[in-house]
Amino acid sequence: MAYKTTATTSGGRNGRAVLENGGLGLAMSFPKELGGNGDGHNPEQLFALGWSSCFGQAILALAKNHGVDGQAAKVTVSIGIDKDDVSFALTADIKVSIPGADKDKVRALVEDAHRICPYSRATRNNVPVTLTVV
């Protein structure tokens, strides 16, 4: 295994989440939209942060093959959560902007990045994802 990290949470969505190495600890809370006070962070926010960073790295890894400047890329990931037939389910919207780049090249790059990004691979066929080039 190339890398592994561990986090522990006590108190669920109204508790505290900490990384094993102590480098990051966050107060967690239900979003106001789900009946909470919204005073802390929530798993959907953390998922959006992680996925946007990971997807951005996939863009960087593949950009040269597409003749695009990956350093100029801005990746925005929005994570939604809503009730479904079983309990709750996630949705994801990934928007990529590379100013000055040809949109068709960026579209091809985004599709390739979606194939290799570990977050995209982990959620494939489980989470509806919309890819948009802006």
From TrEMBL:
BP GO annotations: response to oxidative stress
UniProt xrefs under InterPro entries: KH_dom-like_a/b, OHR, OsmC/Ohr_fam, OsmC/Ohrsf
One Pfam family per UniProt: OsmC
Signal peptide residue numbers: none
Entry's family note: Belongs to the OsmC/Ohr family.
NCBIfam families: organ_hyd_perox (TIGR03561)
Protein's UniProt name: Ohr subfamily peroxiredoxin
